[in-house]
Amino acid sequence: GSMLFGEVTVDTTGEFPVWKLVDTIPPIKHAKTAVSSFVKRISNKKDSVQIVGFASTVDLYSGFSSDKKYLQSVIDKLEATDMTAFLDAVNFSLDSIRKHGGIKVVVALTDGQDNSSHVSIKEVIKKSKYVKLPVYTILFGNVNKNFLAVISEFTGGAFYYTNNSSALDSI
């Protein structure tokens, strides 16, 4: 098959304000578990994943890599902080993955908040269409479902809502 270039953006905000889970597992732990599961399923020979964490700013936690141990070490270092720059992270991901060949996918895990991005939802959708890259959004929690659904719908991706870490398995 073709090479897969996966861009995984992970919301590392500590707040997740409307997080009301019965199991009370912190959202960052769910996100880390989901990304770990995704990384375990890539092929070391042909697939490459980049992990981008975002809170008040976008932090590039890894370059594109096929090394599962390295990627897991990056995932382990993700820590919860406060503010959320979701649109900035998706915009950054679209820019960094667009130059790669093969099958490309941008997956964004978030609580749905965005309170510190500099780019607008229209700009992100326009860029996604221009580079012909769908954005798949996974919502942990129950905030701004419509916001994420609009991004996925208008970019040709898909929107997933979950209260556990298995959401990436279904993509």
Give a description of the structure.
With 171 residues, the chain is α/β, with parallel strands linked by helices. 33% of the residues lie in helices and 21% in strands. It has helices at residues 27-40, 68-77, 86-97, 121-130, 145-155, and strands spanning 4-11, 48-54, 58-60, 103-110, 135-140, 159-162. Strands 3-2-1-4-5-6 form a six-stranded mixed β-sheet, with helices on both faces. Helix 1 (27-40) runs antiparallel to helix 2 (68-77) and helix 3 (86-97) packs parallel to helix 4 (121-130). The model is unreliable at 15-24 (pLDDT under 50).
In a few lines, what is going on in this structure?
This protein has five helices and six strands; from the N terminus they run E-H-E-E-H-H-E-H-E-H-E. The radius of gyration is 15 Å and the shape is globular.
Poorly predicted ranges (pLDDT <50, ≥5 residues)? 15-24
Number of strands: 6
Report, as a whole number of angstroms, the end-to-end distance.
17 Å
**Coarse shape:** globular
Summary tags:
171 residues; alpha/beta; six-stranded mixed beta sheet; 5 helices; 33% helix; globular
